[in-house]
Design goal:
The chain has one domain: Double Stranded RNA Binding Domain (2-Layer Sandwich), CATH 3.30.160. 38% of the residues lie in helices and 33% in strands. The protein has a 5-stranded antiparallel β-sheet, covered by helices on one side. A hairpin with a 2-residue loop joins strand 2 and strand 3. The two termini are 22 Å apart.
Length: 93
């Protein structure tokens, strides 16, 4: 189960959705000091034992972040930052 989860509806074309997801993935990877890559329709970011998956379909974009035990005390702080990035790229519900 993910420690942080978010989902937004969108009306974006596939290319635009992927472009925005790439921007979000780069931002998360930079923030955590890790890397990201595409795995099918998911952008997967990994750093310091944390793993973030950003997935899209024709109507929504979702994000799930799993934190290692040592990072869980920082969950609230990380969640706020990820929410800020998610909102920047995809807006509010």
């Amino acid at each position: 189960m993910a420690d942080i989860e978010m989902c937004r509806d969108h009306g974006l074309e596939e290319d635009e959705a992927r472009r925005r997801i790439e921007g979000l993935a780069e931002r998360i990877a930079d923030r955590l000091g890790g890397t990201w890559c595409w795995e099918g329709d998911e952008a997967v970011c990994e750093a310091r034992g944390a793993k973030a998956r950003v997935r899209y379909d024709s109507t929504s974009i979702s994000l799930a972040v799993t934190l290692p035990r040592l990072m869980r005390p920082l969950r609230t702080r990380l969640e706020a930052k990820v929410e800020e990035y998610f909102e920047r790229y995809f807006g509010r519900d």
